[in-house]
Design a protein that fits this description.
This protein has about 350 residues and is mainly α. The protein is built from 14 helices and 4 strands. It is globular.
């Protein structure tokens, strides 16, 4: 019971810490005359990945290097299947052209790269450095694109953060408090996750893929669900895709660079979980393309896929006797069902577009 309380307290500290860090850093940046475009692309964008980054760095230094990778992989799966699933069930989500043409392909490409990097069972310093270079390049590209379009990326969010003037000392205090909470929260979360894994007889990776991943994805969950409820249906999707991109390039890149040892990628992560993350990213392409809308049925399918994946993880970890039947049910039942739906959706979308073109 105490372990669960510590884990919950760690999660709360991470969420509050990330929020304080973003608010304080954004307001400090504004005080020093940094444009809102830059604030939106750096402070706000990094803020949603702050819990994952704190946990992965702590795990790496605590000798739980596999938990550092599992946290990112699990968070990316949670972001798409669980968060978008819940958001789409609440209200069908609009997909912008930029997401379809640019951001989703980047997410898929980075997922492919991670699959390739994980094949040798670790993320080396060189590979982590390449991810950091990709992070710098991606951020510069977004900044260049925003300047070219003459629009402030994340404009509404940044304006809300800077709506009221705050003294610099208060913003600095927010940053300091946020960093302290992130450090303490990540420590409590990692320690309690290891204790739970030991008590249940499962690997730290399984805890990272499930409990830790859901917990560190809470900022994205709150942002996307609130956006869906408010009717801001494009923000919900953009928030998730952007978070997945930053999780790979910033969280894995930075934690891999500062870690005393290469980040470990166990056989299950390399052969099952990271390919699942890639498959989930690729599934976004036809679902987003068809009608530029993620409807309630597709949201329910996302939730069903996440439930099946989590059930499979638990069955593998606990060596359940029905594991083979569950695997067959997923591979020969659920997956073909989703593929058939994807094909039918694309055909229907092509028919609609052809009809519109003929008019």
């Amino acid at each position: 019971m105490m372990t669960w309380l510590i884990l919950a307290a760690g999660l709360v500290m991470l969420i509050i810490g990330a929020d304080l860090l973003v608010k304080g850093a954004a307001r400090l940046a504004a005080v020093f005359g940094i444009p809102s475009l830059v604030i939106g692309l750096t402070v706000v964008a990094f803020g949603t990945s702050a819990p994952e980054l704190a946990v992965s760095i702590k795990a790496a230094f605590a000798g739980e290097a596999e938990l550092a990778v599992a946290n990112v992989v699990g968070s990316n799966i949670v972001n798409v299947l669980l968060i978008l699933g819940v958001s789409a069930v609440i209200l069908p989500l609009m997909i912008s052209k930029q997401l379809i043409r640019q951001d989703v392909p980047i997410m898929v490409a980075l997922s492919v790269i991670l699959v390739m990097m994980a094949q040798d069972g670790q993320l080396s310093k060189i590979e982590s450095a390449l991810l950091v270079v990709a992070l710098i390049g991606y951020t510069w590209f977004l900044f260049w694109q925003g300047k070219k379009q003459g629009a402030n990326v994340g404009d509404d969010e940044v304006k809300e953060l800077l709506a009221e003037p705050h003294p610099a000392w208060q913003s600095g205090l927010f940053v300091l408090a946020g960093l302290v909470l992130l450090v303490l929260g990540s420590g409590w979360l990692v320690d309690s996750a290891v204790q739970l894994a030991t008590a249940w007889g499962v690997s730290e990776a399984v805890i990272g893929l499930t409990i830790v991943a859901i917990g560190t994805s809470m900022p994205e969950m709150m942002t996307s669900v609130v956006a869906a409820i408010k009717g801001e249906r494009d923000i919900a999707v953009g928030n998730v895709v952007g978070s997945n991109i930053f999780n790979i390039v910033s969280v894995l890149g930075i934690s891999g660079l500062v870690s005393p040892n290469p980040l470990l990628v166990g056989s299950q992560l390399a052969q099952i979980d990271i390919p699942v993350m890639l498959a989930v990213a690729m599934l976004c392409v036809p679902f987003f393309f068809a009608g530029a809308l993620l409807n309630r049925i597709e949201g329910a399918l996302f939730l069903l896929l996440y439930a099946a994946y989590t059930w499979y993880l638990i069955a593998v970890a606990l060596s359940k006797p029905y594991l083979e039947q569950l695997q067959d049910g997923i591979m020969f039942g659920l997956v073909p069902l989703v593929l058939v739906y994807v094909v039918l959706s694309l055909l229907q979308d092509f028919r609609v577009k052809a009809k519109q073109d003929s008019i």
